[in-house]
Amino acid sequence: MICRLLGLAFLAVIALSPGATSAQGTTVLRLSTWVPPGHELNRTVFPTWARSVERVTDGRVKVEIQHDLAAADRQFDLVRDGKADIGYVFHGYHPDRFLLPQLAELPGTGADQVAASVAYWRVHEAILAKAEEHRGVAVIGVMLHGQGVLHLKQPITQLADLRGLRIRVPGGVSTAITAALGIRPISLGPLQAYAAMVEGRADGAFFPMESKESFRLMEVAKHSVEMPVGFYDGTFSIVMNPAALDRLGADRAALLSVSGERLSALAGRGWRAADARARSVATVAGNILSVADAAMELEFEDIFGPIETAWIIKASRERKIDARAALAEYRSIARTFSE
């Protein structure tokens, strides 16, 4: 009886271990997710990719989506240390590590999530990866959420109205944007923003439109302002533990064949669909969605121009790349990409 219990306990440990292989020879990869269960990433993007992985490996590799293994800002370490096999990292939460992803966060590209995600993947592979900012993990895809939107408890009529407001900021380029706008930035994870506004600790938050629904912002921030050129974009890398990838043997190439640009485009389509659905739901709920007028847009363009120049100088100096050329290549691909 004791031996049987010990055997069951051992099997349970194996089942919970990252990259576990069953008695039938099936490898189960644990994918860590930190957004709510109903988020588009969990509803469609990662399940669709998981089915593709299972199909191209003839069922030998399965991907299991697991929630709440670590906070959003701990995902890189989680995957690097082998506590999960796969995860996705929001670069804005790691300002000391990631500088080059800000290339795709700068306002003004004018592309949707699919085009931007594909362009970012191509430029990452051709140029940015050489700087090894993702050292310790394997990048198997990238993605951009929709343009950053300013969600507020009270309406504004001009950019000057933002001065002194306490706004949740996700990091990256948005940090520089908020400083230039005179906003008092608040560093909060996505799951904490709702409570901060309910409790009066925040006046608003920067998020993509989809967060109206996924993080329930439509309940607490009923006024949303979009900038035609975008306030900022948000970038992610989809990463895998290198040892877990290598353990796949011949199936490594199969998994990668449905990753990379294909996974990046899939994720971009998910973010695009999420934005569209949230826009509709928020409108029905009585939220007021407005677009900055021409005067506000012109003023904003004067603000982000120097921020872009500063990034080019810093990235060129610290990462030893031609940042201006990389940015131009990214925008060229994003603006001309066609599905």
UniProtKB/TrEMBL annotation:
Superkingdom classification of source: Bacteria
One Pfam family of this chain: DctP
Keywords: Signal
Signal peptide limits: 1-23
GO biological process, one term: transmembrane transport
Name of the protein in question: TRAP-type C4-dicarboxylate transport system substrate-binding protein
Source organism (scientific name): Stella humosa
